[in-house]
């Protein structure tokens, strides 16, 4: 692994631990010589992660749609900054540049990016590891939702192994580094109707 894509909130959230763990992750990325790929903002957990990477001597690469956000939201001190035309291009570029994905706490945008990375892994578009940093049990309800989907027959049990979970940045990065793609069973369980 050379680069990790981090999806994160553009707000800091209500608990200081969210920012603390974002910074910890950033420092650990730099310590391991891993480059950060992220949405390019200087705000919230996104900015905290990027700043921690840069302050620790690491590389941070931002990808942001042209004209979508106010100018002051773009981080001006990044190692590289890509401007793209829209959100679809942003996600495609971030995926292209990255060897793995991590979701920090965030909102709809973070959830959408996380689930797209998981779905793309599930259907074989990529074989990259996808993890969540479960800070203060932030992602525990989502993990329970995945369990519910398995129990309700909407996802094979082997597919939940595509989501790597830990509450500590060091441990999560260790898990991503040793990731072996699970042997996925067929996504569809209905008999062929033809």
TrEMBL record:
One of its GO terms (molecular function) is hydrolase activity, hydrolyzing N-glycosyl compounds. GO terms for cellular component: cytosol. The keyword Hydrolase applies. It comes from the Bacteria. Pfam families: Lysine_decarbox. It is an enzyme of class 3 (hydrolase). InterPro entries: LOG (IPR005269), LOG_fam (IPR031100). Keywords: Cytokinin biosynthesis, Hydrolase. Its EC number is 3.2.2.n1. The keyword tRNA processing does not apply. Coiled coil: none annotated. One of its GO terms (biological process) is cytokinin biosynthetic process. PANTHER family: LOG FAMILY PROTEIN YJL055W. Belongs to the LOG family. This is Cytokinin riboside 5'-monophosphate phosphoribohydrolase.
């Amino acid at each position: 692994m050379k680069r990790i894509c981090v999806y994160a909130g553009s707000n800091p959230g209500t608990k200081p631990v969210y920012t603390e763990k974002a910074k910890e992750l950033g420092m650990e990325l730099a310590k391991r010589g891993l480059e950060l790929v992220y949405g390019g903002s200087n705000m919230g957990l996104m900015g905290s992660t990027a700043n921690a990477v840069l302050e620790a001597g690491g590389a941070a690469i931002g990808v942001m749609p042209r004209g979508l956000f106010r100018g002051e939201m773009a981080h001006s001190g990044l190692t590289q900054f890509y401007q793209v035309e829209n959100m679809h291009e942003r996600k495609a570029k971030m995926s292209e540049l990255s060897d793995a994905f991590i979701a920090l706490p965030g909102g709809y945008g973070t959830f959408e990016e996380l689930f797209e990375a998981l779905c793309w892994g599930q259907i074989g578009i990529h074989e990259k590891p996808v993890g969540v940093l479960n800070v203060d049990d932030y992602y525990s309800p989502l993990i329970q939702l995945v369990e519910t989907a398995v129990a309700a027959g909407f996802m094979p049990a082997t597919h939940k192994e595509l989501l790597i979970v830990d509450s500590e940045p060091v441990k999560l990065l260790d898990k991503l580094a040793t990731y072996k793609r699970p042997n996925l069973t067929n996504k569809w369980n209905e008999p062929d109707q033809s």
